[in-house]
Amino acid sequence: MHPITDTEVRSALDRAAEQVRRSLPLYAGRCQNHSSVDGVYPPCENVQWTCGFWPGEIWLAYEHTGERCFREAGLDLVESFDRRIREGIEVDHHDMGFLYTPSCAAAYQLTGSESARSAAILAADQLLRRFQPKGEFLQAWGAMGAPENYRFIIDCLLNLPLLYWAGGETGDGRYAEIAQRHTATCLNYSFRPDGSTYHTFFMDPKTGAPVRGETCQGYRSDSFWARGQAWAVYGSILSWRYTRASAALDAFRRALDFYLTRLPEDLVPCWDMLFQPESGEPRDSSSAAIVACGLLEAAELLGGEEGARFALLARRMVGSLAADYAAPLREGGGLLLHGTYSKKSPYNTCTQEGVDECTSWGDYFYLEALTRLAGGWKPYW
Ligand code: GLY
Question: pLDDT category, 1, cuts 50, 70, 90?
Answer without folding.
Answer: confident
